[in-house]
Amino acid sequence: MHGEVLTINSRIAIPLREIELTYARSGGPGGQNVNKVASKAVLRFNLRDSPSLPEAARARALAQLAGRLTIVGELVLSSNVYRDQPRNRAAVLDRLRQLLAAAVTVPKRRVKTTPSAAARERRLTEKKARGRLKRERAVARDE
């Protein structure tokens, strides 16, 4: 990460002041520290009101991530994969970056193509061979 911003792609960077990070006690193994250390990282990012996202990117992200948003338009992520707080913090920030990068990318337009003459010929030849095989089976069964 570059200091105080989370870089999503070449055009979008989110200042960390827009991201709320809190820490909680994590479940699972932790040894003697399990009840003392808050290692689980919980991230909240207000996607609906973020000034860092261009309007088109925000609309795409809101549509793509609609099922993961709270009523007020916040995206809530958490990470408790690791036993220490800094690695969980890095993991949850990386997950936010990946989610937003995938949500704001515009899919490539599909270019319609027509099958080549050789491909059409191959398809018809295979269909004829298959039909011939089925016809031969039907004749053999009647006898």
Helix and strand arrangement:
Layout: E1 5-7, E2 13-15, E3 19-24, E4 40-46, H1 55-64, E5 74-79, H2 85-104, H3 117-142
Antiparallel strand pairs: 1-2, 3-4, 4-5
Can you describe this structure?
It is a single chain. Strand 1 (5-7) and strand 2 form a beta hairpin. The protein has helices spanning 55-64, 85-104, 117-142, and strands at residues 5-7, 13-15, 19-24, 40-46, 74-79. Helices cover 39% and strands 17% of the residues. The chain has 143 residues and is α+β, with helices and mostly antiparallel strands. The protein contains three helices and five strands. It has two domains: 5-104, Double Stranded RNA Binding Domain (2-Layer Sandwich), CATH 3.30.160.20; 118-143.
Keywords for this entry:
143 residues; alpha+beta; Double Stranded RNA Binding Domain; 2 domains; two-stranded antiparallel sheet; 5 strands; 39% helix; 17% strand; elongated
Short summary of the structure?
The protein has 143 residues and is α+β, with helices and mostly antiparallel strands.
Rg is 27 Å
Order of helices and strands: EEEEHEHH
How many DSSP H or I helices? 3
How would you write the strand order of the largest sheet? 3-4-5
Classify the beta-strand content into a percent band. Answer: 15-25%
User: What would the principal axes of the Cα set say about the shape?
Assistant: elongated
Termini separation comes to 77 Å
| Known CATH architecture of the largest domain | 2-Layer Sandwich
Beta strand count: 5
Coarse structural class: alpha+beta
| Biggest sheet architecture | 3 strands, antiparallel
Q: Low-confidence stretches at least 5 residues in length (pLDDT < 50)?
A: none
CATH topology of the largest domain: Double Stranded RNA Binding Domain
User: Which class of the largest domain in CATH terms?
Assistant: Alpha Beta
Name the average pLDDT: 86
Q: What is the number of independent domains?
A: 2
Q: Helicity level, as a percent range? A: 25-40%
